[in-house]
């Protein structure tokens, strides 16, 4: 059996960051990856001669982001796009009323002011919420405190429902009250016209990565680890397991002996979400210029309510919308044609016959992906914010969990994956190392 200093399970951004740091600091590292590519939930479709990011697209705020620093070091081109988080303003947004007519500037401003008023109340309500409160519970309290009529309340209620769905792929009553606490944006948001996947591909350079090696079992003891794959077993002194929460919770991935407390308890607080992307490319642009997002209010917007204008990425009229939460669950087994027709029907309510048939479409299917079981993890009702970090508690001195869900500050993101990989590498080494070593050309020890 081949033996290594450390085995990293999963070649997503978390695993690659950990593997690269350990390798840079003199460890013999093996990365085992089930897919036939690196990157995990950073995945770019390069067909059609353009990059379409099927997984992560945005850096949600470039300030102090390790992903922004790595992207710069790797020469990745970026395009500013500051509405990736579900903000109601900050860049031009075309808000359409329930009747399908665009709100006047004044009406939009008062709607946005209402959202900010509820958000201001919400901060205190969330801080004082009971441990078993849902995001739905706290938003209802914050809405009730405004004393508005039903129509005005309902517009903001919908917005908050959509925010829970679009940010966490979860219905508002399924998300913990604290589930959106760490949803902060520092600095501009950017996307990558040449694809996000350059990041994992560059991080992977020079590493010993075995693709299509699906891990079925991680056996750990004070003496080290044995990792079973469909290509045999590998041994190591330590292991870093970066598979998504959905895989950790599945029967196909066994950790033996089972995860101890407090890690096991923390893991039960998370669930993988339902969040899919729908890209529509058109021959002609039919929506207004200088609009970053089109948003639809009212019952017609229950599923399809936001369309992001990605035209600037490839100079081709392109809209991105999401099936998130209940919409993603209900359309899971729909054909691609049926999903597209449903989205177009909604767009035609706003733009009539000006909406042509798209020239190309892409629809993701992360919920059915056996190596993720969803797009990212969210906090279920009753879970605690610190459960994220608890997941990364070192186990028996030999086993470490990492990945987006194990990082408390902005979990569910690529930066969280990177920071968690860095922490795991430092835990294995028993000392801190600069995260920049993951992308620097040379390190002090080279
Ligand atoms: C649709 C979508 C949109 C997103 N949008 C954004 C965004 O705009 N901005 C942002 O910052 N983040 C976004 N994210 C989240 C971001 O992509 C993830 O948080 C991040 O990529 C997770 O990295 P990771 O290394 O923790 O996990 P992963 O990337 O999932 O890596 C884990 C790896 O483990 C492998 N694996 C699984 N099971 C096994 C097994 N049994 N054996 C061996 N290997 C296994 C997987 O194949 C995978 O490669 C989005 C994600 C999705 C899906």
Report on the structure:
The chain contains 13 helices and 20 strands. Strands 1, 2, 8, 9, 10, 11, 12 and 20 form an eight-stranded mixed sheet that branches. A six-stranded mixed sheet has the order 6-15-16-17-14-18. The model has no long low-confidence stretch (mean pLDDT 95). The two termini are 30 Å apart. Among the domains are: 3-41 and 196-271 and 376-438, 3-Layer(bba) Sandwich (FAD/NAD(P)-binding domain), CATH 3.50.50.60; 46-66 and 76-85 and 273-368, Polyamine Oxidase, Chain A, domain 2, CATH 3.90.660. With 446 residues, the protein is of the alpha/beta class. Helix 3 (105-127) crosses helix 4 (135-144). The chain has helices at 13-24, 66-73, 105-127, 135-144, 150-168, 198-204, 245-248, 263-267, 311-314, 326-330, 336-351, 387-390, 414-429; strands at residues 3-9, 29-32, 44-45, 52-53, 79-80, 93-96, 190-191, 209-210, 215-221, 224-229, 232-241, 254-256, 270-272, 275-281, 293-296, 306-309, 318-324, 360-363, 377-379, 399-401. 49% of the residues are buried. The protein is globular, with a radius of gyration of 22 Å. The structure holds flavin-adenine dinucleotide (FAD).
């Amino acid at each position: 059996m081949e033996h290594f200093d450390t085995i990293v399970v999963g070649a997503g951004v978390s695993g690659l960051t950990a593997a690269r740091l350990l390798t840079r600091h003199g460890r013999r590292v093996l990365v085992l990856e089930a897919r036939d590519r690196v990157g995990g939930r950073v995945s770019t479709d390069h067909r059609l001669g353009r990059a379409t990011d099927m997984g992560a697209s945005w850096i949600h705020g470039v300030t102090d982001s390790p992903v922004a620093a790595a992207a710069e070091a790797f020469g990745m081109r970026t395009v500013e796009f500051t509405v990736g988080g579900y903000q109601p303003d900050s860049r031009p947004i075309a808000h359409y009323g329930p009747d399908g007519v665009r709100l006047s500037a004044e009406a939009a401003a008062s709607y946005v002011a209402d959202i900010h008023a509820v958000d201001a109340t919400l901060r205190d309500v969330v801080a004082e919420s009971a441990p078993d409160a849902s995001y739905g519970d706290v938003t209802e309290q914050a809405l009730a405190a405004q004393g508005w009529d039903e129509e005005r309340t309902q517009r903001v209620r919908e917005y908050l429902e959509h925010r829970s769905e679009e940010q966490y792929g979860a219905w508002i009553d399924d998300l913990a009250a604290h589930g959106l606490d760490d949803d902060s944006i520092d600095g501009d948001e950017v996307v990558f016209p040449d694809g996000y996947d350059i990041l994992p591909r560059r991080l992977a350079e020079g590493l010993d990565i075995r693709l299509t090696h699906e891990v079925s079992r991680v056996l750990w003891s004070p003496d080290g680890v044995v990792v079973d794959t469909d290509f045999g077993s590998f041994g190591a002194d330590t292991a870093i397991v970066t598979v998504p929460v959905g895989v950790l919770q599945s029967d196909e991935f066994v950790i033996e002996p089972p995860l101890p407390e407090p890690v096991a308890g923390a893991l039960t607080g998370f669930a993988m979400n339902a969040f899919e992307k729908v890209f529509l490319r058109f021959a002609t642009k039919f929506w207004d210029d200088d609009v970053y997002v089109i948003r639809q209010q009212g019952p017609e917007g229950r599923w399809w309510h936001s369309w992001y204008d990605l035209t600037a990425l490839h100079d081709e009229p392109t809209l991105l919308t999401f099936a998130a939460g209940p919409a993603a669950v209900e359309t899971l087994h729909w054909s691609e044609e049926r999903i597209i027709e449903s989205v177009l029907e909604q767009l035609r309510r706003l733009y009539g016959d000006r909406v042509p048939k798209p020239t190309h479409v892409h629809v993701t299917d992360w919920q059915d992906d056996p190596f993720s079981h969803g797009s990212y993890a969210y906090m279920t009702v009753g879970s605690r914010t610190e459960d994220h970090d608890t997941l990364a508690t070192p186990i028996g001195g030999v086993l470490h969990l990492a990945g987006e869900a194990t990082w408390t500050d902005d979990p569910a993101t690529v930066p969280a994956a990177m920071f968690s990989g860095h922490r795991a590498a430092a835990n294995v080494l028993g000392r801190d190392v600069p995260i920049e070593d993951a992308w620097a050309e040379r390190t002090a020890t080279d």
